[in-house]
Amino acid sequence: MSSVMKSASLTTADPLMIDGVEYQSRLLVGTGKYKDMEETRLAIEASGAEIITVAIRRTNIGQNADEPNLLEALPADRYTYLPNTAGCYSAEEAVRTCRLARELLDGHNLVKLEVLGDEKTLFPDIIQTLEAAETLIAEGFRIMVYTNDDPIIAKRFEDMGCVAVMPLAAPIGSGLGIRNPGNIRTIVENASVPILVDAGVGCASDSAIAMELGCDGVLMNTAIAGAENPVLMASAMKKAIEAGRESWLAGRIPRKRFASASSPVDGLFFQ
Amino acid sequence: MELVINGEPQQVPEGITAAALLTRLGLENARLAMEVNQEIVPRSQFETCTFTPGDRIEIVRAIGGGGTTP
Lengths: 271, 70
Known about the structure:
The structure holds 2 protein chains of 2 kinds.
Chain A: E1 16-18, E2 21-23, E3 27-30, H1 37-47, E4 51-58, H2 70-73, E5 80-84, H3 91-104, E6 110-113, H4 126-138, E7 142-147, H5 151-160, E8 164-167, H6 181-190, E9 196-198, H7 204-212, E10 217-220, H8 222-225, H9 230-250
Parallel strand pairs in A: 3-4, 3-10, 4-5, 6-7, 7-8, 9-10
Antiparallel strand pairs in A: 1-2
Chain B: E1 2-5, E2 8-11, H1 18-24, E3 33-36, E4 39-41, E5 56-64
Parallel strand pairs in B: 1-5
Antiparallel strand pairs in B: 1-2, 3-4, 3-5
């Protein structure tokens, strides 16, 4: 167990700090894959998330002129947008996407960087991600970076100036849960920036486990949007993350091989 | 002249500005960002920015997305 001094969230505020900004929710959510804009809005409201990822895509020209606008359904005065570079397979594509996002969002410079390696695994291409991060940091972007669960690389991203490091739990959209808890734990122990599990959780208990490993938050999309009842799952995720956080702060008992009685042995009347 | 707008070739009048192009496309009030030949055109320059034939223009918006929406 860690000997880190932990504050009790029942009595003191326990905000998530990212790049000097305080957030009350440790659940960050994507806005993709929902049935419609109304379901998106309801699920995100139920999740309690304050930071929501958005994708940057071509405007449809000459069609769907009246389709509902995400930025109107989820207004900027209520949510912090986190433009992501989802779908980028090279540093160059990711850098262009971030520049467009910053222009689109009036100078907003907090972005989620992800550069993918292949379509089958959607694992990050670390070489390209490092290259993109270097360029973007030099241009003043504040980067939350999607990476694999490699502690060495996670530290490298922190050292180069990323404001949060976000290792995957399992492949994006897989719902497999935390495949490598030991590595996630090591990444957390090494870090002095927030560590958020990004991708791969499938259900509420997966999120709780991430928080019990000491992660600062969890970012997810498919686990909520793909559930049979997305709004209910959003609510479950919110509670799981709060429960996991408190469980981490409370400090669990050590695992033991044999039993340990919880009623006193002294005073038994039949001895 | 011909421009390539979001991957599609389109004929537009010579000397058209970025602002006039957006109006022509019905996007004058849309929340968007533009790049020409991979360079950002700041919104403040839409009234003055003009194009040369063959320019590749990307007009983007924010949509729902999480960890990789294709």
